Amino acid sequence: MAHNTPPKKVPNLEKRTREHLLPNEVEAMIKAASLKGRHGHRDSTLILLAYRHGLRVSELVALRWSQVDFSSGTIHINRLKHGISSTHPLRARELRWLKAIVEYRKTKTAPNLSFLTKLRCGIGKAYIPHFKM
Hints:
- The structure is a single chain.
- The protein is mostly helical.
- It is built from five helices and three strands.
């Protein structure tokens, strides 16, 4: 009688030489996101923030406007999975893009959620695609 055991898992190092994206790859993702759909700016901003601040998907979708301080140019990140929450500086590009979202949202009614769907509710973890290299 044959046993149906799954094949042994190949270590990631044997499949690919690195586990991170390079800056030019992130820029390509940002550009592609900005060209797709009607929420291109929002999606590009999500990618930029996730990359620059090392955010998990759950941390990204949980962001609130109260965590962004435009006057000091900082964002407070509430880390999950026993991470240490901290305040990060925002670069000029991030500030401009976040301010553009705020300006757009002034014409809409929405809760304190930073990133919204077309139905004006917060995006969830399922919204963020899982990119594979």
